[in-house]
Automatic annotation (TrEMBL):
Signal peptide: 1-21
Keywords, sorted A to Z: Signal
Signal is among the record's keywords: yes
Start and end residues of each Lipid/polyisoprenoid-binding YceI-like domain: 23-183
Name of one Pfam family that matches: YceI
Protein name (Swiss-Prot/TrEMBL): Polyisoprenoid-binding protein
SUPFAM superfamilies: YceI-like
Length: 184
């Protein structure tokens, strides 16, 4: 299922849990993926307006869950059209060549009440890294809400080429924040 949401909520970061037992429908209005980074040492949070989230989750067997999130890199919204165009360009996401950032899980394990440890492969700009991060699950309005944060280094994915490799303007550290609300 593909959905679009105004404002940055996603990269990637992001995140769909797909379990083998019960397919869930993503609640677009209550889901988001965003990236938090520092620009000139000032925190900035920007959203991905479009991402594809799929959830298949059985609380009785969380270890059988799998996850996949596809984020449209050109949908990154910094709040100004000129900057959005720059970030979609070759030096940053190169959205023409790499239109999607993707996370696919390889293991999801229970990590305590309402918590999961999620591992998988994150692909941005053709570069793949193994990642592991915590996810919390809570019921809300008849749905399950999956929330988490995934810290990454942007330069490991070649985000910010040329003069933008200098981390004094834009820090290397980025946190992908996600919230996926889903139900039957």
């Amino acid at each position: 299922m593909k959905f679009t949401r105004g404002g940055l909520a996603a990269v990637l970061a992001g995140v769909t849990l797909i379990a083998s037992a019960v397919p869930l429908k993503t609640d677009v209005a209550h889901s988001s993926v965003s990236a938090v980074f520092k620009q000139m040492n000032v925190p900035v949070e920007s959203k991905f307006k479009s991402f594809n989230a799929q959830i298949d989750y059985d609380a009785a067997h969380p270890e059988k869950a799998t996850a996949r999130v596809d984020i449209d890199t050109a949908s990154f919204d910094i709040g100004e059209a000129e900057y959005n165009k720059e970030v979609a360009g070759k030096d940053w996401f190169n959205s023409a060549k790499f239109p999607k950032a993707t996370f696919v899980s390889s293991a999801i394990k229970p990590a305590g009440a309402g918590k999961l440890a999620v591992s998988g492969k994150l692909t941005i700009k053709g570069r793949v890294q193994d990642v592991t991060f915590p996810v919390t699950i809570k019921p809300e309005g008849g749905k399950q809400v999956f929330e988490g944060q995934l810290p990454i280094k942007r330069l490991a994915f070649n985000i910010g080429e040329g003069e933008w490799k200098d981390t004094s303007m834009v820090a290397d550290e980025v946190v992908i924040k996600f919230r996926v609300a889903a139900g039957q």
